[in-house]
Amino acid sequence: MREMNCDLAVVACGAGGTAACAQAAQMGLKVIGIEKGKKTGGAANGGMGPLGINTDVQKRDLNSISVEDAFRMFMDYTHWRVDANLVKKYFRKSSETIRWLEDMGVEFYKAARYFPGSEATWHIVMPENRKPGPGCAGTMIKIMTQYAQEHGAQFLLQTSAQHLLMEDGRVCGVTCVDKDGEEIVIHAKAVIISTGGFGGNKEQVLERTGYTYNKDFFGFCIANMQGDGIRMAREAGAAKTEESMELVVSPGGALKESVRAAFHQPNLLVNYQGERFFNEEFFENSTFAANACNLQQGRCGIMVIDDAIRDLYENEGVDVSSYVLNRTDAKGFTEDFEKALASNPYVAKADTLEELAQKMGIDVRTFVQTVETYNHYCDSRDEQFGKRPDYLKPIRKAPFYACKFFPGAYGTLGGIKINHKTEVINEEFRPIPGLYAAGTDTCTIYGDSYMFKLPGNSMGYSVNTGRMAAESAASYIRE
Length: 479
Ligand SMILES: Cc1cc2nc3c(=O)[nH]c(=O)nc-3n(C[C@H](O)[C@H](O)[C@H](O)COP(=O)(O)OP(=O)(O)OC[C@H]3O[C@@H](n4cnc5c(N)ncnc54)[C@H](O)[C@@H]3O)c2cc1C
Known about the structure:
- The chain is α/β, with parallel strands linked by helices.
- It has 2 domains: 2-243 and 414-478, FAD/NAD(P)-binding domain, CATH 3.50.50; 247-408, Flavocytochrome C3, Chain A, domain 1 (Alpha-Beta Complex).
- Helices cover 34% and strands 20% of the residues.
- Strands 1, 2, 5, 6, 7, 8, 14 and 15 form an 8-stranded mixed sheet that branches.
- It is elongated and about 70 Å long.
- The two termini are 31 Å apart.
- It binds flavin-adenine dinucleotide (FAD).
- Flavin-adenine dinucleotide is lined by residues 11-17, 34-37, 42-44, 46-50, 137, 160-161, 194-196, 220, 224-225, 228, 410-411, 439-440, 456-460, 462.
């Protein structure tokens, strides 16, 4: 057993924890960051960047949105079922955080929209290879980690935090186990928790949110996210929050990018009954599409395209492109789809609509009628849901292709109740002295659905609450 001493122990070094370490070290605290993984970053290493509102990057591109407008939009969206003070503080801080990151050497490629109907709040990080794409936020994490180290922070990698130490009702440290099984007892004046939720724990996901991985749910399952921080905080008396998934729509099984690019489009979407249930023009808002699929039998929506759409997407370009797929066409679809047919039970191809419906388990008669009606809408207007006309593409030319979509998620949301100072609070709303929390372990600010209209929100929330937690902990330690 080893013992260590510090001012602040940060339990987990993903987006929130690494920001907390950098902020606390900058303020002169002696910081120890504890991280289960081989490197810092957590889920953020797979992402592209955080939210920023009213930033210099946005102003440079004439794409700015004010904090007031964003806040109003957000509170309208969430019906004020969320901590308004926390949201306001986070939004206000977000532009200063982008500058803080730039000052330490992070470069932002641009402030982007996730989809055309969203705001340009997603601050995409310029990676070392100068090719922004999935995972480029890893560069931001690396720079924050180096910055924290240069300011004296120490990172214990491949080390798992186990339990909080308590004395007279105050949190005064944390116990950990390193990769060789040695116990480390860290004595600290304050502790911040930011362990990224419980999305890697399939049993907890089923028990707490009702989703079954690889059956009716196809989310990212990152092994390290086992709900450790939530458990530790609860052991210390933290109150519970609602727990949910940060839903996005996801195809069943793994698919090549060309196939995903062809199906993540505003085309005919039906359920097993063969009925339309969604205005597919909103499919670009992944959360809205996931919500609508969630309500269907098997939580499943089936996207259908014909060979004319395939040809258009493969050879000329898709209707909606996104930075996540980083492509504007579906080149390679024909070959990639044939391979998918051999290994992925969630896709099908057929020469007739009846055969396609049978292969996908859709009610044949209703489906054929739905396609007929939909094709009529394509020639006139969508009388059912009012879909914008340029997205109305008929399903007429064989062969026909289909892909099943389900809810997926970037991770879980919520677990530990905090106040707007990021202090962890108990059921009586009283802060547990010395305990702070940040990131998705605490995130209940979206209400019932992830807020994609202000993209970069989850990494933005984590980085900003990480910094806020470090500032609150520093005041507490100094007092
Ligand atoms: C593929 C992908 C792409 C994404 N892209 C974006 C994006 O572009 N923009 C955006 O806003 N959001 C994005 N997100 C979501 C965003 O990355 C997360 O919301 C954010 O990283 C959460 O920060 P966090 O600090 O709460 O947790 P994480 O960043 O996930 O970090 C949690 C850390 O806790 C560690 N840990 C867990 N238990 C312990 C323990 N007991 N002891 C020590 N360490 C422990 C884990 O190893 C991990 O490093 C993406 C997510 C994924 C999966």
